Amino acid sequence: MLNVLKALPVAIVAIALAACTTPANGAAEASGTKITAAMEGQMTDDGTAIKCRSMQVTGSRFPAKECKSEKAWQEFDKIMAENAKSSTDGFQRLRSGCATQAEGTC
């Protein structure tokens, strides 16, 4: 029983460290190589060049440099535009005026 109690903190630390070392989603290209800032301007497997952007991080004064292929940046921009449009539409149409009144007497 005493050995189990000694091994428990070691197991917890090992699990925590394993979780910290797993890469985030999208951190690697399909080929398995991680894109870094040093690779900016090089060609990817899909035939587009690698571009880097400075992204503002919430809660930090320092921007993070994120690098992706041009194709991935186009997809990223498309998703961000769709999110912005749906949020704007929601506030302008659904969450203002008559839609916010419980009785709907407009």
Q: Which properties best describe this structure?
A:
alpha+beta; 106 residues; two-stranded antiparallel sheet; 2 strands; 42% helix
Characterise this structure.
The chain is of the alpha+beta class. The chain has a domain at about 35-95. The chain has helices at about 1-20, 70-95, and strands at about 50-55, 65-70. Residues about 20-30 have low confidence and may be disordered.
The proportion of residues in beta strands is 5-15%
Number of strands: 2
- Contiguous low-pLDDT stretches (5 residues minimum) are 21-30
Shape: flat
Tally of helical runs: 2
Give the ordered list of helices and strands: HEEH
Residues in helices, as a percent range: 40-55%
| Main sheet specs | 2 strands, antiparallel
Q: What's the rounded overall pLDDT mean?
A: 75
Distance between the termini: 70 Å
Order of strands, main sheet, comes to 1-2
Structural class: alpha+beta
Rg on CA atoms, Å: 23 Å
Quick structural summary:
This protein is an alpha+beta fold and about 110 residues long. The protein contains two helices and two strands. The N and C termini lie far apart (about 70 Å).
List the helices and strands and how they pair.
Blueprint: H1 2-21, E1 50-55, E2 64-69, H2 70-94
Antiparallel strand pairs: 1-2
